[in-house]
Q: What sequence folds into this?
């Protein structure tokens, strides 16, 4: 698919590969990470290596990353594959979930039902306690998109970030109401999204692609005889 995208690229078009980091233990447990610096799990590093292999055939012009460790570790594995050191940009950080970070939605619904219902109805306009709204995230990430589209008017740029960043940017580009991002845009760990820019216009050409993760997983033996 990515090779065909390179052909699709042509002249005067840039492709931005927005990818979500690999899995963390909190992701596996359904806990909100947000700004908390949770590291990749063993599964997350495996996912990141498969994602890096997926991107390796692409001639990447630059690699950008959120400053959070789970994104930076994913970006480091991608960088080793594509030959670039990640450039850290703080605007790519995940949504701030405030007081809800480290908790599951079931826990939040029990302890803070009114706030959860208000946020769930419109997460673009409502923020978790001490957190950030979807609109606020879009306001900080869209200038990054604008700068990148000016700096790279053709070629391929990889951007390692987070679930909510990818979902809201996809909604922003496609014209989907931001309040619907949680209901309409799925985003798995290590998912690949491709946003194209040409002549001032953006379009989504791939969304939540995890085909690189659908491979037989072989674990190394645990001992000399595999016991």
A:
């Amino acid at each position: 698919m990515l090779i065909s995208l390179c052909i699709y690229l042509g002249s005067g078009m840039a492709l931005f590969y927005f990818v979500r980091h690999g899995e963390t233990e909190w992701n596996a447990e359904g806990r909100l990470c947000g700004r908390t610096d949770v590291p990749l799990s063993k599964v997350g590093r495996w996912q990141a290596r498969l994602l890096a292999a997926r991107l390796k055939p692409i001639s990447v012009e630059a690699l950008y990353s959120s400053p959070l460790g789970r994104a930076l570790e994913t970006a480091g594995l991608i960088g080793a594959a594509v030959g670039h050191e990640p450039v850290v940009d703080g605007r790519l950080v995940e949504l701030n979930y405030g007081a809800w970070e480290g908790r599951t939605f079931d826990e939040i619904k029990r302890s803070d039902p009114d706030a959860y219902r208000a946020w769930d109805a419109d997460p673009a306009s409502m923020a978790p306690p001490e957190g950030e709204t979807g609109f606020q995230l879009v306001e900080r990430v869209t200038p990054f998109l604008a700068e990148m589209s000016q700096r790279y008017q053709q070629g391929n740029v990889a951007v390692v970030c987070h679930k909510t960043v990818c979902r809201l940017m996809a909604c922003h580009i496609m014209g989907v109401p931001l309040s619907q991002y949680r209901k309409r845009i799925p985003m798995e760990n290590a998912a690949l999204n491709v946003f194209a820019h040409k002549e001032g216009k953006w379009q989504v050409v791939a969304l939540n692609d995890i085909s690189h993760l659908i491979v037989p997983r072989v674990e190394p033996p645990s001992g000399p005889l595999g016991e």
About this structure: The longest helix spans residues 134-151. Residues 124 and 134 are 4 Å apart (CA to CA). Confidence is low (pLDDT under 50) at residues 223-227.
